[in-house]
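Q: Structure tokens for this one, please.
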Amino acid sequence: MAQHEIFVDLNHYRLTHGPIMVSFDTTQLCNLRCVHCFNNSGDQAPNPDLPREQRLDIARQIAEMHPFNVCMCGGESLCCSDLFDIMDVLRPHVGKLSMVSNGFLMTSEMARRLVEHGLDLAQISIDGANAWQHDSFRGVQGSFDRAVAAVRNLIAAGISSVDVSMVPNRLNWQSLEEYTELCHDLGVHQIRLMPFLPSGRGRSVGRNLMLDEKQYFQFCRSLERLDARYQGRPAFQWGDPIDHMRRMPFNASLGLHSYSMEIKANADLTLSTYLPVLVGNCTRRTLREYWDGGYKNLWGNEQLTQYTDQIRNIYDLETFEPAPYSGETIMIDILEA
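A: Here is the predicted structure, written as tokens:
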């Protein structure tokens, strides 16, 4: 599951009275067993899901802040039993609704209903050019065929932008050309790539599939050649999970507010989705109270950024303690501190 980045007009940025983007983990449940899962999603996830009414209350809190974009994440977002109700709460009050999914449950009927309930953008995870690469990585046989079908179903349902994501690893990194050809033939709008993180199951179960620095360099050279060949059809986007830890404190030093909020499936608010540093819980206080009470200036809080300062590259996640998504956390409630 990759973190979304958006580019915004600065005039809109100055006028907003809340976050421009909200990432909401609607569930920690997942129907796959991905060896790289950085947040340990699944039946044994460290953060239990909220009851239905609390999930809907969080959706109402998000709606009251009128963000430009809400990303419904997980876990697997389609495993959330209240997903359509959440969308109905959000749709009249937000600019765009997006979601990330492994695609396993994305039938043509599911895609049609998502469009009816207002979905604008969808990202499907496809982690290889063939079933062996993808299914071995995702832990469930048949998941590749389901993910490919999910892209076709979403496009047929009328979603204007269907993206795919891929995590380069030792199973797929040498098949980027075949992978890109597959995505081009499917009509994918954008391929989003994000490095394998040594966090959650990626720190234990799947660690041996992580590329080394030389392999990453060779992969990125291939990416440059393919980007020039395909000329944006599909486009490539490289997601750097460390970039925001360097960029956002600098932005804060210039007086800029944070543009996003991150809400986990148990209502915890995080400093960064990749670190076990929590700053509140929106079952205790509202999102608006947290935003106005310090979240919008979070990246200028030196008590918090001392933790992000420990991360200079993805390999540093392997030594951060407590281990992200191990069940242990660092809580610094910005309204109680």
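A few notes: The domain at 20-331 is CATH 3.20.20.70 (TIM Barrel). The CA atoms of residues 101 and 276 lie 23 Å apart.
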